[in-house]
Amino acid sequence: MDPMTRKTTLANGVRILTHQVPHVRSVAMGIWVDVGARDESEEEAGYSHFLEHMMFKGTQRRSAYELAKAFDAIGGQSNAFTTMETTCYHARVMDTHLPVMVDILADMFLNSCIDPEEIENERPVILQEIGMLEDCPEEFAHHLLEKYAWGEHPLGRSILGTPKNILNLTSKDLTQFFRKYYCPSRVIISLAGNLEHGHVLDLLAPAFEILQPGQGRSDRYTPLLQKGVRVTARPIEQVHLCLGAPGLAITHENRFSASLLTTILGGNMSSRLFQEIREKRGLAYSVYAFSAGHMDTGMMGIYAGVAPSTVETSAELIHKELQRLCTDPVSTEELEGARAYTKGNILLSMENTENLMVKLAQNEIHFGRYIPVEETLTKVDEVTQESIIRLACTAFSENHFLVSILGPSDSAASLGDKFGIREAKELSGEKKA
């Protein structure tokens, strides 16, 4: 392990990781829980996200206002997020304020009141957040892609939950959820910046050693990615086209090939899709490729927002580029350009203590160890043209993916033909509670 990186596991299983960066003046800290929206039962859908909000709503020592004021008083930046597989409560402060940050975050995490009155205040906020999703077509299009791609599996649900669950949950529900899922073996605390590991342990260990074991999450099961065409009609200005193809788990040995593949296809301004669809033809303002990995599966995808009159032309061009990946070798120039772009992003991200904190925790969750940046750069250098072609031909083979359309379009069958997909289905444009 890097001498600047240390790990200590407390007696109850809580893991504390630090990465020392002596030349900076900041420290970033995250309390991570290896539990996310995919671990919820159908009746619990939305609990992880609601609980994340409630952690900022007051503890036995501080009110919600006092928590906010405490962070503001030290110039701190604090937030939280919930994903399908993890939940994180994080902050970033000047190194001199490390003890205060630790005290506040630990207090929030360990002593949250989950007060019934605060739940009533926050309930309409979450419902507004659910409503906002459908008011942002690009974001909603991605949600629909995941919904149709993963079907009834929890990965197909919204992290925000359902209005029914949000309206019915109680303080007791969230308290039980915390005790059940937030068990010590699933808690990782990561810090990066100008710090000393022993000092961090002195600050954190007394508080987190008292965290009691819980039931923990159930074993996760792997879904199959659905295929076909799904059209959700809405009276909006653009057609939002999303394509999803079988991808790789976040730990897969070929994940670096997938990263370079999406970069070449549509990851930057010199990529094939950006040049062909935006620069040469002006068909879209936003067009890109992406790769999303989970612990056991993943999805490679493409997004384009286009005018209704050009959706079929755009679909043809996208399909043509997918076919070209399998027939025309990726040039040495393209590969080296994608390699340099990827390595540059990795190295630039290392200059931010928050990014370092996130990477430290994610490596522990997914790989159980610290991964030096040099190892990652070596893996990027090892990607070959052949590995990219093999991956592209596997993921984007005919009738092997799902296309989701959001907008004023009823051309499910014709779009299926453009992509070589035989199964098409049109869905109602009605909003559902």
Give an account of the 3D structure:
This protein is α+β, with helices and mostly antiparallel strands and 433 residues long. Helix content is 44%, strand content 19%. It is built from 16 helices and twelve strands. The strands form two sheets. A six-stranded mixed β-sheet has the order 1-2-6-3-5-4, with helices on both faces. Strands 9-10-8-11-7-12 form a six-stranded mixed β-sheet, sandwiched between helices. The C terminus is likely disordered. Belongs to the peptidase M16 family. Its cofactor is Zn(2+).
What is the topology?
Blueprint: E1 5-9, E2 15-20, E3 26-33, H1 47-54, H2 64-73, E4 77-82, E5 87-94, H3 98-111, H4 116-135, H5 137-150, H6 163-168, H7 171-181, E6 187-193, H8 197-208, E7 228-233, E8 239-246, H9 255-266, H10 272-279, E9 284-293, E10 298-306, H11 311-327, H12 332-349, H13 353-367, H14 373-381, H15 385-395, E11 402-407, H16 412-418, E12 424-427
Parallel strand pairs: 2-6, 7-11, 7-12
Antiparallel strand pairs: 1-2, 3-5, 3-6, 4-5, 8-10, 8-11, 9-10
Helix pairs in contact: 1-7, 3-8, 9-12, 9-15, 10-11, 11-15, 12-14
Organism: Desulfobotulus pelophilus
Cofactor: Zn(2+)
Domain Peptidase M16 N-terminal: 15-162
